[in-house]
Description:
With 282 residues, the chain is of the alpha+beta class. It contains six helices and 16 strands.
Amino acid sequence: MINLNGALQSATSPLFSVHNRGFLYGDAVFETLRYSHNQLHFWEDHYFRLMAAMRVFRMSIPMSFTPELLEQECIRVVEAQSTAAPSWRIRLSVFRNDGGVYLPDSPDVSYVIEAKPLEDQTYISKDNYKVELFKDYYVQKSMLSNLKSNNKALNIIGSIFMQEQGFDNGILVNDDKEVVEFLNGNLFVVDGEILRTPPLSSGCLDGIMRKQVIRLAKKQNITCIEEKISPFDLQQVQEVFMTNSIAGIQPASSYRRTDYQNTIALQLQHALNELVNSGQDK
């Protein structure tokens, strides 16, 4: 089952016309959330990022789009599923209504929510995770790159390339050849006693899990700084790991001829699971 503007219906039912602006122009923003322990994790951060993206896209935000309403509608989708699962991946998409070409006829929006089951209730990482730099195309250093929008051509092309080359993930760089993020999440490195992550000004996604890791690092007395990272740095640091809302924290095991440790990554992953299990991650 999916939720289209508050109406539950079969996921196989026709939903959109060929005039859908999300399909035609990528005129849509979205949030990907994890649901387990009977709650949406880090919902408040997700909600405010969605509202910020809608404002940047100059969408009209309905008065009904309260955090309480959208949270309830997401949970309704999970409860309507015919099968049970320990956790769920939820995608909440907001798209501008049909009409117009590049210039829309209206700023009004609709939303659709879908849910897919996940195998694990807690965040669990893979042991062997090889990564490589993706240099065919670059991330732009702009606010649009910080948002979750439907314009994901770079991520799609890069993901296909990495699969063809036998890697588990790719690392993106911007026009200044600075390391930005992974294809599907933010990037952190452990450099001596310091945890480093690229700043938002580099063009990386303003990730929800990125925020949680920065907060958790402070609680764990780990110094975390937002600082430019070069491709050369990737071969000098002790750890590299990826973060996103579904995987949580995924350590990289190797990059080219460099093998990584995962001590800090697993320490933070343990703290993250404790936070989620305690229900204090609203």
